[in-house]
Design goal:
Blueprint: H1 2-17, H2 27-59, H3 64-87, H4 92-96, H5 101-121, H6 128-165
């Protein structure tokens, strides 16, 4: 059953990206296109997070379903990109983990979304259940990011140790 699902996903990815196109035959052109696509994806992701926060803060209660739909819509391609890369042997959290100013910016925008939803749902006083859920969600996301950083550091240390034992491998 897994093999059938995998084949369907591979066919879907090939159809969407048109990997068989002659455009991909030239290496420099392919590399530039990959960088441009990565830039576009990151711009879409950051823009979606910022737009959803603005929707929550400016649109009030009526904007909550649309802002949440935008967050889900923006998240789905991210997860599919990670899934596709993992199928090809690339560990995305290690290679592209948020760190430094990007991590701080992400946490600020993430917090703005949580606070914006609380603001939109009850502009006088957010319910205790929602605030509690938001705090738990934020703590979970923060814990996940910290865990990814720890895993990245451990993998890097293992790779360095393996390189020192077996140089050139």
């Amino acid at each position: 059953m897994t093999a059938t699902r995998t084949a369907v996903f591979d066919r879907f990815a090939a159809a969407v990206a048109d990997f068989g196109s002659p455009f991909y035959a030239e290496e420099r052109q392919r590399d530039i296109w990959n960088e441009a696509s990565a830039f576009g994806l990151q711009l879409f992701l950051w823009g979606s997070l910022i737009l959803s926060a603005a929707m929550f803060w400016l649109g009030g209660r009526g904007s909550v379903p649309y802002g949440l739909a935008l967050l889900v819509f923006a998240s789905l391609p991210s997860y599919l990109v990670i899934f596709y890369a993992r199928r090809l042997g690339i560990d995305i959290p290690v290679k592209g983990a948020l760190r430094g100013w990007r991590l701080v910016a992400f946490l600020v925008v993430y917090a703005a979304n949580i606070a914006g939803v609380a603001h939109a749902l009850d502009q006088q006083r957010p319910s205790g259940g929602f605030v509690g859920g938001a705090v738990i969600g934020a703590a979970g996301a923060g814990g996940f990011l910290v865990g990814q950083q720890v895993l990245q550091r451990r993998r890097r240390q293992r790779a360095e140790a393996a390189e020192s034992i077996h140089p050139g491998l």
